[in-house]
TrEMBL record:
Alphabetical list of Pfam families matching this protein: AP_endonuc_2 (PF01261)
InterPro entries: IolE/XylAMocC-like, Xyl_isomerase-like_sf, Xyl_isomerase-like_TIM-brl
Taxonomy of the source species: Eukaryota, Fungi, Dikarya, Ascomycota, Pezizomycotina
GO molecular function: isomerase activity
Name of the molecule in the record: Xylose isomerase-like protein
Length: 371
């Protein structure tokens, strides 16, 4: 059910992506988790690289992170238990990449089976959600055809249901996220796949950064304002038109996970697009310059609160989880996890305060008042 607006408070609990607490190269996972618990997070979004490094810390090969060996599953249960002992839960594991739309039947079967390899680990972690990012491949071996991609997601949903039916455990869910540099790079293009897949356990993952990176921002704009359109008003109008459609068409229960993050307004005179055609133009900005919500003092400028308000207005009840990549996470230092955990929680609290003040722009006449 849609949320009555404005809400008296935000009921959603807070989460954080493990990489947003520090890169696994320099930071072991347990201290990062302890920093998250100390800062007050309730949910952990487990990144593949962090899980692989955790296995290596326990003397197991990180290259075989999803092989369901007794040792790997034992360590997975230990990690799930550690996180519960800190008062948190694992919300999901991610990311799965280049899964859907593969034309060759043998390659397609192997790709879908990669997803199924995670199911035993989801039980060990005591989590029910895994999600895949929209395919970024552009070669002739893949297609973005709606029926083909929807068929793949439907089959993944059926595989997850069969696994849960067989072991008698809770349902397992498949989430689908549009990346801002993928062929399906908007919430609407990924939603049409989820809708056509027509499975109760297949849903949408919405990432505020990826929404804004396509529908609001242009880090390379020569004027240096970082937007697609010259004025903030026009940029906001276009964004809100899209978000109003999200509220009108996506039931809250079909949004399986919501991630938030801002990004730095960069100087287009010095921050240039990649020259390698194999590197998507938005990738360097995404990987090195994301920020937590409301970090204007660090260059943040995107209206994360508008995306968050729209998502919550659908009736979404899951975690609001930070997903931030930044060069500051790739340096050593004992305080990196604690500093980023604290910064992230500050941003989430500011976001929770800002959301009820957003006018219901998705309703007729709702654009009245400042956004």
């Amino acid at each position: 059910m849609p949320m009555p607006w404005p809400p008296a408070s935000i009921p959603n609990e807070f989460g954080i992506f493990t990489l947003s607490l520090g890169n696994a190269t320099h930071h072991n996972l347990q201290p990062r988790l302890e920093a998250a618990a100390k800062a007050g997070y309730q949910w952990i979004d487990l990144f593949d690289e962090c899980w692989a490094a955790y296995l290596e810390e326990h003397g197991l090969p990180g290259t075989q992170l999803w092989e369901p060996t007794p040792d790997n599953l034992r360590v997975a249960r230990e990690l799930g238990g550690l996180i519960k002992s800190l008062g948190m839960r694992i919300a999901c594991t991610q990311p799965l990449r280049a899964i859907e739309g593969i034309k060759d039947p043998v390659e397609r079967r192997a790709s879908l089976d990669l997803v199924a390899k995670r199911f035993p680990f989801m039980r060990a972690f005591d989590t029910d959600l895994v999600f895949l990012c929209a395919n970024i491949r552009t070669d002739s071996g893949v297609t973005s055809d709606l029926r083909t991609v929807a068929r793949d997601l439907a089959e993944l949903g059926d595989m997850a249901k069969a696994y849960a039916d067989a072991d008698g455990g809770p349902p397992l869910r498949i989430g689908y996220e549009g990346l801002s540099w993928a062929t399906r790079n908007t919430w609407s293009s990924t939603w049409e796949v989820v809708r056509m897949a027509n499975r109760a356990n297949v849903g949408l993952v919405v990432d505020a950064f990826n929404v804004l990176a396509v529908e609001f921002a242009d880090p390379y704009h020569p004027a240096g304002h970082g937007r697609i359109y010259a004025t903030a008003e026009e940029s906001t109008d276009v964004l809100c038109s899209s978000l109003a459609a999200l509220v009108a068409t996506v039931p809250g229960e079909k949004i399986f996970f919501f991630q938030v993050g801002d990004a730095e307004r960069v100087n287009p005179d010095t921050f240039k697009p990649p020259t390698d055609p194999a590197v998507p133009p938005l990738l360097p900005w995404s990987r090195g310059h994301r920020l937590f919500p409301f970090e204007e003092e660090r260059g943040g400028y995107m209206p994360v609160h508008l995306v968050a308000a729209a998502v919550l207005a659908t009736g979404y009840k899951g975690p609001v989880s930070l997903e931030v990549f930044n060069n500051s996470l790739n340096v050593p230092g004992a305080d990196v996890a604690e500093v980023h955990a604290r910064r992230g929680m500050t941003g989430l609290r500011k976001l929770a305060e800002a959301i009820p003040r957003v006018p219901a722009f998705w309703q007729r006449g709702g654009r009245q008042g400042r956004l």
